[in-house]
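Q: C-alpha cells for this one, please.
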Amino acid sequence: MMRILAGLCLCFAALAQAAALPVGEPDVRVREDGDAYVVEVDFFVPVMPPKAWQVLTDFDHMAEFIPHLESSRVLQRRGYTWLVAQAGDLEVGIFRFRYESQREIVLLPYKSIQGHAMTGTLRLDSLTTLTPDREGTHIHYQAKGTTETPLPAMFGLSIMSERVRAQFTAMQAEILRRNGRVRG
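A: Here is the predicted structure, written as C-alpha cells:
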C-alpha cells in the first residue's frame, strides 16, 4: 500500500512539474532557396488545439497583436476556404519594404491551416499544423515565399529571422493571454 501511495505521489509531482514547465520562445529557422525564403517555426502552448486555433485563425484581428502587420481581414468565407488580405511593412535602417498579399486559406479545423498565395508583393505558401499532447499543443509552421522587392543581401536572413520570431512570439503570447496563461 505504501508503494502505491509513493507511486501516486511521484506521478502527481511529475504532473505538477509538467504543468509548470516554462513555455519557451518559438524556434525559428530561416534560409534562402534561390530567390525564395524558407521559414520553419516550432512552438508550444499549454492549451488544447481548439483554444490555439481561435488565435491562429483570427485573421480579422491579427493586426492588433502581430508586429509589423498593419491590416488583416477575411475578404471571403466559403466553408473552410477563406480569402485573406494582409499588409504590413518591414523597416531596415533607412529602407522600408511594404508588403501586401491575398492568400487562399484552407482550414482543417484544429489540425492544419494551409495558405496559398493568390496576389500581392509577398507571395507566400504556408502550412501550419497543430499536434496535441497531454500538456497542450505543438504548433509547426512552414512557409516558402518571395517578395517583389528583394531584401538587401546583408540584411535578408537576419532581419527575416528577427521579424518572424517577433511575429510568432506575439502569436504565442496572444494564445496564452486569451487563455489566462502567462509565459513561464
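A few notes: The helical segments are 2-19, 49-56, 156-178. The beta strands are 27-33, 36-45, 69-78, 81-92, 95-108, 112-120, 122-133, 136-147.
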